[in-house]
Amino acid sequence: MGSLSLFQVLWKNRHLLWQFTLRNVELRHKGSHLGLIWSFLNPLFMVSLYVLVFGFIFRGRFKADVTESRIEFALVVFLGLSIYHFIGEVIGISPSVILTSPNLVKKVVFPLEILPVASVGAALFHFLVTLVLVFVGAAIAGVPVTKGALLLPVILVPLFGIAVGIALLLSSVGVFWRDIAQVTQFAVLTLMFASAVFYPLSQIPAAAWTFLKFNPLLHAINEARNVVFWGAPLNPKHVLYLYACAVAAVIAGSTAFRRLRNSFADVL
Length: 268
Hints:
The chain has one domain. By secondary structure, the chain is an all-alpha fold. Helix 2 (14-28) packs across helix 6, helix 3 crosses helix 6 (114-141) and helix 7 (152-176) runs parallel beside helix 11 (236-260). It is globular, with a radius of gyration of 19 Å. It has helices spanning 3-12, 14-28, 38-57, 70-93, 102-105, 114-141, 152-176, 180-193, 206-212, 216-230, 236-260, 264-267. The two termini are 22 Å apart. 71% of the residues lie in helices and 0% in strands.
């Protein structure tokens, strides 16, 4: 199953993919009294905590001048956090996606690719909720959003591709190497601080930039902030790099999944 075959399987089973995506969203809030309302409350609590620590205690800023208000800082952080948590959620969930569905794995006719991609779909739903909150918050606070926000999908499309590739890779490897779930917990935390969520790129030391510049999430977050709040044009090199990473991730993920899937049932 190459990447092209992956898309063919997903398109052929698109209705099943939609059903499993909805199921994943519902299961996350099953049994709670507030249900989907937590999709709005959790990101608000999260950004409040981080802004308190990095904005008020450490006096973080993205602009060198004094015109940046605490509310603007909070919204810029919120946008970065929403993008980071989309990828972070995918990384955190993916290793157990196949492991928690042994009955489906043993069904020969079931398209197993649906499971990891549906988990990405559920993460995308929560990401879109937080993204709406960013724009609503900007409108209420009077923080200007530039016309460049219309270019945001150009950044989000490759990000989705990267998420799909990660989900396919981790879900397949996670069947055979159970310890990967422990590794990904540390990886998600490391990724947050390596993606310039709370600070501008100008504060990254040259020695650290030598390595961090290869982090596609860092470029996605920075480009999103540029077009949404600061009116800066997209950096063509960074955008092309994001799409290259997306293609590489999908190819690597689909290849690993294809080679390992026939042994899933034997392990489970």
